[in-house]
Amino acid sequence: MTIAEMVAKARVAQAEFEKNFDQAKTDAVVREIGKTVFDNAEMLAKMAVEETRMGVYEDKVAKNKGKARGVWYDLKGKKSMGVLSVDPETDLITMLKPVGVVAAITPTTNPIVTPMSKSMFAVKGKNAIIVAPHPRSKKCTAKTIELINKAIAKFGVPKDLIQVIEEPSIPLTQELMASCDVVLATGGMGMVKAAYSSGKPSYGVGAGNVQVIIDRGVDYDKAAATIIKGRIFDNGIICSGEQSFIYPKDEKAKVFDAFKKNGAYIVADADHDKVVNALFEDGHIAGDVVGQSVQFVAKKAGLNVPADARVIVVEAKGVGAQDPICKEKMCPVLAAFGYDKFEEAIQIAKTNLLNEGNGHSAGIHSNNEEHIRMVGEGLTVSRVVVNAPVSTTAGGAIGSGLAVTNTLGCGTWGNNTLSENLTYKHLLNTTRVARISPKVHQPTDEELWG
């Protein structure tokens, strides 16, 4: 089937769905999409690991279940069609309407939950969606869509409301982006730039490079355990995964002991370049280390690390562009930086972010509310996670207040439209019916300017 045929069928299906499905019926379909991935989490995780050869099976199971629960938790009971509100003072009526056909570009790093969440967001707003998976994960993504379509058929959903390109390619993805109504681009920076150049409204993402500050006075053991938990989740392929920790120099022994206690292998200064050269090629992350284990990375670097090592820690030789280890590392490796004053910690994080990952996310472990707010004010990121794993919190977690998603906007800092987590509200058009309300006093010039 050609892209033109897929889009034409999507438009017919979307019009039928919009006409025949009210809020309750729509929400039943959205729930079923999430529940299908939840119920098939193990099988889909196994497929993803085997096809992509990246990540950790147990973590992918947790991710499939967690994101399915979280997205439905966010969307459940939310109004997404018809009259949303009537302002009691101005009588302004706000109405919600579909955007049409959504093109969803999905990555090989999250080949199950990204198409799931985007489908839930799209259908919540009565849109059709066509998924363009990464070629390296086309089978598991196609299987996900197949299972979803089979599950929602019982609700009388039009056949072509949710589709997937089974044999994806760059030309087909580009054609899809140019033919749809809005593009959701989650993946590499090249694909995000292509989406922005498609001529259609697009929501993209930015590169991650999460900097985590460890404040004085915290439980270093707990902080280390939390940071490592976030860094090693799914072998570090999540864009919101911790990349560096920034610690107080005068507490280095305590901090590093805490990391060692929790399974960190601290790289000797003499082996620094071995790790850097194993991770990066021509300044970019080496493809063969993405989503791989500690043992794989260590072997490539020529290091002998204990069999039970959970993460590799490298002390940086500079900040920002001064050392490649300051960049995003999509595997279980952390960079470490020491600071004297807290303001210096913020500056280190900011310098690293300006080098790569600006606009994405950061973390802090602190009991000092003033310091927490200083980080929020001082860093150009769209989200700061406090005393929790950034990798599994920045993309939304129940109780965090952040929308649960797999598409994390980075604002203009990261060359994105959004500086928040993408959700269903971004796939809605809005009509506002306005009139001059007699309830609103019209001020005189003196009242207004005096």
Quick summary:
The chain is α/β, with parallel strands linked by helices. The chain has 15 helices and 17 strands.
Write the layout of secondary structure elements.
Layout: H1 3-20, H2 23-39, H3 41-52, H4 57-75, E1 82-86, E2 93-98, E3 101-105, H5 113-124, E4 128-132, H6 138-152, E5 162-164, H7 170-179, E6 182-185, H8 189-196, E7 202-203, E8 210-214, H9 220-232, E9 242-248, H10 252-261, E10 264-266, H11 272-279, E11 280-281, E12 284-285, H12 294-301, E13 311-315, E14 333-339, H13 342-355, E15 359-365, H14 369-378, E16 381-386, E17 428-433, H15 445-449
Helix pairs in contact: 2-4, 2-5, 2-6, 3-4, 3-6, 4-5, 9-10, 11-12, 13-14
Explain this structure.
With 450 residues, the chain is of the alpha/beta class. 40% of the residues lie in helices and 18% in strands. It contains 15 helices and 17 strands. The protein has helices spanning 3-20, 23-39, 41-52, 57-75, 113-124, 138-152, 170-179, 189-196, 220-232, 252-261, 272-279, 294-301, 342-355, 369-378, 445-449; strands at residues 82-86, 93-98, 101-105, 128-132, 162-164, 182-185, 202-203, 210-214, 242-248, 264-266, 280-281, 284-285, 311-315, 333-339, 359-365, 381-386, 428-433. Helix 3 (41-52) packs across helix 4 (57-75), helix 3 (41-52) packs antiparallel against helix 6 and helix 11 (272-279) crosses helix 12 (294-301). The chain is globular, with a radius of gyration of 23 Å. The model has no long low-confidence stretch (mean pLDDT 96).
